[in-house]
UniProtKB/TrEMBL annotation:
The keyword Transferase does not apply. Keywords: Coiled coil. GO terms for molecular function: structural constituent of cytoskeleton. PANTHER family: COP1-INTERACTIVE PROTEIN 1, SPINDLE POLE BODY COMPONENT 110. It comes from Marinagarivorans cellulosilyticus. It comes from the Bacteria. Gene3D superfamilies: 1.10.287.1490, 6.10.250.3110. This is KfrA N-terminal DNA-binding domain-containing protein. Residues 7-114 form the KfrA N-terminal DNA-binding domain. GO terms for cellular component: cytoskeleton. Pfam families: KfrA_N. The keyword Coiled coil applies. Residues 72-273, 302-343 form a coiled coil.
Amino acid sequence: MARPGVTYYDISRAAEAVKAQGSEPTIDRVREQLGTGSKSTIAPLLKQWRNNVELNIEEPDTGLPSDLISAVKSLRDRIQQASEEAVEQAKQDYQSRVQTLERTLADDQEKLSEALDREQTLKQQITDLEANSRKLNGELNGLASRFAVTESERNALKARAQELKETVSELKDENRTVRDHFEHYQHRMAEDRQLERDQFQSQLRQLQSQVESLTKQLTHSQAEKENYRIRYESAQDQAEKVTYENQELGHRLESLSSQIKKLELDCGSKNKKISDFEINTSNFNAEVQGLKEQLTRKGVTLERAETDLHEIREYAGRLEAENKEIAEEKAVLQGRLEQLQASLGLIE
């Protein structure tokens, strides 16, 4: 914006003086002639003077003080320049804020994409666990078939039942321990699932209005998780059924110590598989919790982005109101200037 101390009248007088000296009026020469003023202030006024010179526009001899006419023109030029600079600055600020917001949203979308990829990986792990569960069920069914074969030998084994009662008692204790372990694990998993469902539903309610697409994806994941839980409980029921069948078949395998040892080895192998399955389930729950935390952070980031966007819109509204006021003032001054010019024309 031109400073009040340097006007178009001053610039025109200095430029004419430089031209009278036989030199081309430049910004530096005019500034040297004035002894004051910045280049950014002198440049637009000198350009206006050159345009007026090219159009052969001269100061009218109206009988009014030339300082008054120069002051009015300078005021008009300053208002116009201030208005253009304010609009340009507002546009630059708005574009800068919008670019920052777009970069933030792009980063959030990239993080969301990574979270979706992670979810796909978890789904693949669930599929692998289900395959392992089916394999375990197949092995249990094979074991049940072998137990069924031994049913035909029951009558021949009754005579030696007394000798192996003590061994059978130990097996019963082990089976009870395994069953207690299954019940405890099932109870603990039910509590963890209930707590996770409550927390997850609370987070979904908070994010539902902002990230509807994420809510749909999470709902789909929850349905898959529930399906997996049902399959897992079914596998547990089958395992308990097999445990019960082990107790029944223990009476029929009392005389075959070699086969009992083999069954003990089989039970140990299956317990190891069950332990591995528990570890995989725990890892899956930890990864699901991590995904929930990432979604919470994304929700906070989106809220901040919306707040910034709201502030930008308010700031743009204020700038538009200020520009409107400046335009109104400019129109009033333009009208006054036109009236002054009209009156000057009448005087002539």
